[in-house]
Design goal:
The structure is a homodimer of 315-residue chains. With 315 residues, chain A is α+β, with helices and mostly antiparallel strands. Helix content of chain A is 39%, strand content 23%. The first copy, chain A, contains 9 helices and 12 strands. Chains A, B: This is Mevalonate kinase.
Chain lengths: 315, 315
């Protein structure tokens, strides 16, 4: 074959971000906003992207090594993913995304998952979604160090997923949720946000207590999802948001948005993902997208994706 | 004597609002923004106020009974306070305040404390500040039902006060804190805010857990006050604010203000009092009042008052 294209759903964290890093449970959902990663026969290894932060740069990667300071994160993920495979063939990897990177939608994980899914099929391997998830997580960890398995698993497997406490399990939640979602640019890097939480944590045991409560909110949310109780679920979103905000990981515009939604009597909203800007989710109702747009957020297609990553051969 | 004037300091809650209603500890501070309550010899009992919500209304109260639906809260507090005394003499009670009522500054309590202090002296009783506090609290409870002893005690006694968990004790905190404070009108009534917390509480044990954390934040804040650690104290303000916000008792403008302060690297800010608008406090630094004013808050004189209520005879 000449090329393989992977369609990777992006994801939204519904509950438990940050706490999940410390072993607490989390809930994430794959969405219909997708990223395309195409692997194509080529004389040399080339990475290109007409979106994301690397713009239209084309990088010759015959050596499969790169000076990381000169390269951005997307590129380093592609290289790390390609380097995972023993069977190295020169390919043109192109990444196409309609959303900005680093806004809490799992684009970093999606790049890795997309390369693993498309390149593996290109070289004749037949990985299951679970294998793609596992391999992608390994690669992500080797590049990032910290973080959770949530993004790689959710973008690989699709659906509504529950990540239990202190475990490597992933469980499907038998439920449904209509959400509205949007994002703004992040004002603070993940590294700085993680530093803030750590600094606060070093000063006492308050952070652990707050993480405990976030863990309980996540468990209650799981039950609310299973029983279809949108009203409780929404209230838990507000609670989870306030707890994240108390940790200093939110953003003025988003705090005001969520607080406005609550004062307008909307069912529920919260920040989603690492914070410092980034994504916001709300229980979907007529007012929710209007509110998100009115505060300058870019709307994303937040219908649930239940397939996970898919690939097709293009001849 | 012809008349007695009481000068009553207003107050700011530093930590533990809402949680104090459920038996958790709290910290409050009397401030230099004051209310004047004057009791003057008169043929009939008259209540007047050129500030507060009753405006310039003068009400003849020969009967010392009032149709409460026609009267506002300030008036009902004055009447309840006068009715406390066996020795009833016709007086003209005038209340003068420079701040709006119901913004978390303890104006309701200050009215009661002011009447108790000035009227008792007018009829020849010599109450200690502790007696004034105790009597005022009794009167407040008879009118309000709910609430905490914090406001009546702080406006009576002055200073920086710690209200321990599940106790009627009040302890002075040996520390100092320079704060900036301002307020906006409240968008939500205390009754509605208390209903919100109760509704959330009825749905699970999450609210109790959050109250627990607020209690611990308050204990840490007490130590930080005693050791003069403004930086920790400020961080605890942010944490306390987020926890209050998770309970749905905050306000969009105030959430944005506090979040902006945090993102600007300011030491600490939080809502203060019942919420739904009302007061905000920040660790005082050059930027803090400018930020408060820029968000439309009216600045109050938040220097500490250490005398509590004082009275003087005017002949």
């Amino acid at each position: 074959m000449r090329s393989v294209e992977a369609i990777v759903p992006l994801k939204l964290t519904l509950f438990g971000e940050h706490a999940v890093v410390y072993g607490y449970p989390a809930i994430a959902m794959a969405i219909s906003e997708t990223m395309k990663v195409r692997v194509e026969k080529s004389d040399k290894t080339i990475v290109s992207s007409n979106t994301l932060t690397i713009g239209n740069i084309k990088v010759d990667l015959d050596e499969m090594r790169a000076e990381s300071s000169q390269l951005n994160r997307v590129l380093s993920y592609v290289i790390a993913a390609l380097n995972y495979f023993q069977d190295r063939r020169p390919v043109h990897v192109s990444v196409e995304s309609t959303v900005e990177p680093s806004v809490g939608l799992g684009t970093s994980a999606a790049v890795i998952v997309g390369v693993v899914a498309s390149y593996s099929r290109y070289i004749g391997l037949n990985y299951s979604p679970e294998e793609i998830a596992k391999i992608s997580r390994e690669i992500e960890r080797s590049v990032q160090g910290l973080g959770s398995r949530m993004d790689t698993y959710t973008t690989s497997l699709g659906g509504l997923l529950y990540f239990p406490r202190n475990s490597d399990d992933v469980m499907r939640i038998n439920g449904n949720l209509q959400i509205a979602a949007g994002y703004i640019r992040r004002a603070t890097s993940t590294a700085e946000i993680l530093r803030r939480v750590k600094r606060l944590r070093d000063r006492g045991h308050i952070v652990d207590k707050i993480m405990d409560v976030i863990g309980e909110v996540t468990e209650l949310a799981r039950k609310a999802l299973e029983s279809g109780d949108d009203s409780l679920l929404g209230e838990l979103m507000y609670v989870n948001h306030g707890l994240l905000s108390s940790l200093g990981v939110s953003h003025p515009t988003i705090d005001e948005l969520v607080s406005t939604a609550r004062s307008l009597g909307m069912k529920g909203c919260k920040m989603s993902g690492g914070g410092g800007g980034g994504s916001v989710i709300c229980v979907r109702e007529p007012k929710s997208e209007i509110l998100l747009e009115s505060k300058g957020l870019k709307i994303v297609n937040s219908e649930i994706n239940s397939t996970g990553v898919t690939t097709k051969e293009i001849n």
